[in-house]
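Dear Dr. K.,

Following up on our conversation at the group meeting, I've run the structure prediction for DNA-directed RNA polymerase subunit M from Sulfolobus tengchongensis. I'm pasting the input sequence below exactly as I used it, so you can double-check it against your construct before we proceed with anything downstream. Let me know if the numbering doesn't match what you have in your notebook.
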Amino acid sequence: MRFCPKCGSLMRVKGSKMVCLKCGYTDSEVERVVLKESISHHNDKTIVADGEIIEGRVAVALCPRCGSTRAILLNKKKKLYKCFTCNLIYTID
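The predicted structure tokens came back this morning:
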């Protein structure tokens, strides 16, 4: 990650140059950044509910389609859930 020497803003790669989005400063020395996400599964649980085995990050979230409160958390940042009853994938605002 590089910052602009003129204004201090974050510089981004555009083509074969680094460009400051705020002041337009360019530099021919390109720095590539690779973003990686790792998911820890130490919070995952196996729960038996109503005779069904639920594996994954179990959450209590009201499904807008069927009204079930059992869901699996698919993405914590986007608040993305999958209903265990009707398989609807939904978000909660």
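Two things stood out to me. The two ends are 32 Å apart (CA to CA). The chain has a mean pLDDT of 79.

Best regards,
J.T.
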